[in-house]
Amino acid sequence: MHYILAHQYNRSSRYYVFGKPVIIYSTRLAHVYVGVKGREIVNGVSCDNPAQAMFIADLCSEFLRLGVNPSRISVIAPYSAHVKTIRSILIGTGITCNTIHKMLGAENDIVVLATTRSNDCKDLGFMNQPELLNVATSRQLMKLIIVGDDGETFAEGSVTSKKIYDFISSRGSFLSFKNTS
């Protein structure tokens, strides 16, 4: 069984993501890291990660099913190719998806951050920039869910990302999700 976190919308209820049973439970944890198995796809100067996009779509579907207003959810990613993929999956849901740069100055109750990158070199691309990570991890009013790789790209990609990863995982809010379908 896999676990996903929702913020005070339901208690210990069973739902399905990728056709697999999951438990969504309320929590006071404001920051969550979810490791998703899947590799990046380099597309010119941009990158995409379909596994992360599918997980985010299922996560957002569950929030909507629990009655969360779509205007209270924002999805952000560093790469336009990844944003395009996520938008195409979320079409018609009312949930916004933009690049991190376009989220500058904006906030929302729930922010889902897709890190996109997942590679053996532990290269985060321009997510290595502390300023970009600062914007990406400070847009939420209630909950930040970072959807990253299940390996070490985010954990060891940069000094700043490692600090964020360590902060979140030290509080027991690190989850690993593998699509076994």
General description of the model:
With 181 residues, the chain is of the alpha/beta class. The chain has a single domain, classed as Rossmann fold (3-Layer(aba) Sandwich). The protein has 5 helices and 11 strands. Helix 2 (80-90) links the parallel strand 7 (73-77) and strand 8. Helix 1 packs parallel to helix 2. The longest helix has 16 residues, at 50-65. It is globular. The two termini are 13 Å apart. The model is unreliable at 1-16 and 20-27 (pLDDT under 50).
Brief overview:
With 181 residues, the chain is α/β, with parallel strands linked by helices. It is built from 5 helices and 11 strands, in the order E-E-E-E-E-E-H-E-H-E-E-H-E-H-H-E. The longest helix has 16 residues, at 50-65.
What is the fold-level CATH name, i.e. the topology? Rossmann fold
- Rg measurement, Å: 15 Å
- Kindly provide the name of the CATH class: Alpha Beta
Going by CATH, what is the homologous superfamily? P-loop containing nucleotide triphosphate hydrolases
What is the chain-wise order of helices and strands? EEEEEEHEHEEHEHHE
Portion in helices: 25-40%
Structural class: alpha/beta
